[in-house]
């Protein structure tokens, strides 16, 4: 590489700090989310005074900063007081009530609950006791809460959290549910017994518009790349491609891959072509993320649908059963789940002589799905 252009700190990389493009990076600057941050801190304020905070329902499409807002907020609370315990639970990986409470236990005690297993009642009892003993308020963020709904665990989980003070007088717990599923009117789908105690404040995260995306990604470029690597034109193109889905993750992934493409060409500058090439992969970040956390049986189901794209549910079941040996009831549940995840389209159609039946097809490009199932 040419040191002759006077770029002394080049160090053989276009990146100044590649870490800023990683999935768990929490950005220092968090712009265009002032009103949402205000709504959240308003709800949490009572906790700072030792009272139960207001519950909150956070909604908005993927990649609009919901998780980041929670991380920022919890960081601010921790800086302010040690009297409030804040725990964010990723429900994509912890999709049952027991798993959620295991994470809460871990957050409170700094070690995992006994692997030999204890009853839910005991698990909860120990968490509550600890909070009461230490006189601390607990704020739980159930991130990607839609996954609890898919597993039919949402009502039980929320019920336990919201009624904690009845079973364990003195326990003060606030709940923030975070959901990105537009089809899920989360609250409406809860049991009546939960609805009667769950009246959350609403905080909505709309998609960023193109100028906002460009500003946010511009900040990332400044931190992540050496000066002059990404031109204004290239940044605008990345912003335009990102705005197509509105998911900021696409843009962040795109920047990183385009940088790697430039490096592969031994170029010190990211060109338009690097971006276009990268987009073929980056446009699927949402798909990759959805698939990454699926259970083996769910992956088999998608593979079966890919092999029988557009076929009737009955025919797909045959293929699924062959692969997994699972029965029809479980099959139906899994079909509903991948449907709710937006991975397939299930359409009712009249089939001659057999009444109404569902036909199942992939919502994404078949090759893209199969590549990611491997
Ligand atoms: N205002 C912002 N400023 C800087 N970076 C942001 C901003 N909003 C989001 N991001 C970045 O975009 C990415 C996606 O954000 P985040 O994970 O918070 O979205 P989300 O709404 O929780 O998505 P999902 O619903 O899919 O979980 C993260 O890498 C985050 O750092």
TrEMBL record:
Tell me which residues make up the Cdc6 C-terminal domain.
Answer: 302-373
Positions of ATP binding: 64-68, 208, 220
Q: Which UniProt keywords apply?
A: ATP-binding, DNA replication, Nucleotide-binding
Any one biological process term the GO annotation gives: DNA replication
Q: Which GO terms describe its molecular function?
A: ATP binding
Family the entry assigns: Belongs to the CDC6/cdc18 family.
In terms of NCBIfam families, this protein maps to: orc1/cdc6 family replication initiation protein, PRK00411.1-2, PRK00411.1-5
Q: What exactly does this protein do?
A: Involved in regulation of DNA replication.
Official protein name in the record: ORC1-type DNA replication protein
